């Protein structure tokens, strides 16, 4: 409120029949390049604006302040095509701006003062309550869907589920389990090793023959005596 009143004090030095300075700057920018357009008069208020090409045409209605480019309709500030038509009519451009941009309109409105909260009328309704706290789990996959409110209807699933074939056992040919979990899969004991086999176990060690050291020494002495003789 104080800011708006400070601006009003500045506006007091302006011409009350004029428009605001910022709107004037926009109108000056829109006037650049208007000389390239060719206005053709249809009647007192309607004009056809031709651009650089004969196919570039815009319809301007000065009475209703409408242009086919829609910029004048949306902003309330005359566009380039409207300015070309206003110049052809030899009127004042500022008079075709919307009334909300005039200095007089800016001075007419004000933010009125209000009482403090202790002077507000009491209400018999239930005061607003804080929303319920919903604890979300941090484990698992991150949720991508929007969180539903407590009074909302659950989401309707439109996607078809992936087809899941039931398991089929290769032993009993029944559905619901496989060969590994089948109750008819009895493990057969290993066949006993034939004791009469000629192959010894791999862990057995081969017996070593005894070394007769005395016999070898006696034969060595006999050979030495025969060599000396």
Automatic annotation (TrEMBL):
Ranges of residues in domain SWIM-type: 58-90
Keywords, alphabetical: Metal-binding, Zinc, Zinc-finger
Pfam families given in the database record: SWIM
Classification via InterPro entries: Znf_PMZ (IPR006564), Znf_SWIM (IPR007527)
Stored PROSITE patterns: ZF_SWIM (PS50966)
Entry GO MF terms: zinc ion binding
Biased amino acid composition, Polar residues: 193-206
Keyword Zinc: yes
Residue segments, region Disordered: 193-216
PANTHER family: OS05G0489400 PROTEIN, POLYPROTEIN, PUTATIVE-RELATED
Protein name (Swiss-Prot/TrEMBL): SWIM-type domain-containing protein
């Amino acid at each position: 409120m104080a800011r708006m009143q400070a601006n009003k004090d500045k506006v007091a030095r302006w011409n009350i029949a004029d428009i605001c300075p910022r709107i004037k700057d926009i109108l000056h920018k829109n006037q650049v390049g208007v000389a390239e357009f060719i206005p053709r008069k249809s009647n007192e208020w309607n004009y056809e604006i031709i651009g650089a090409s004969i196919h570039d045409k815009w319809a301007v209605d000065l009475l209703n302040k409408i242009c086919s480019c829609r910029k004048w309709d949306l902003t309330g500030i005359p566009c380039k095509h409207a300015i070309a038509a206003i110049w052809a009519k030899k009127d004042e451009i500022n008079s075709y701006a919307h009334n909300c941009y005039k200095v007089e309109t800016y001075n007419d409105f004000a933010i009125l003062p209000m009482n403090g909260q202790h002077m507000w009328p009491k209400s018999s309704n239930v005061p607003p309550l804080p929303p319920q706290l919903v604890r979300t789990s941090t484990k698992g996959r991150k949720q991508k869907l929007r969180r539903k409110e407590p009074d909302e209807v659950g989401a309707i699933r439109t996607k078809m589920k992936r087809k899941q074939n039931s398991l089929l056992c290769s032993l009993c040919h029944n559905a619901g389990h496989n060969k590994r979990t089948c109750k008819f899969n009895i493990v057969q004991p290993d066949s006993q090793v034939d004791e009469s086999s000629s192959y010894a176990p791999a862990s057995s060690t081969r017996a070593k023959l005894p070394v007769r050291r005395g016999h070898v020494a006696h034969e060595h002495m006999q050979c030495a005596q025969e060599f000396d003789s």
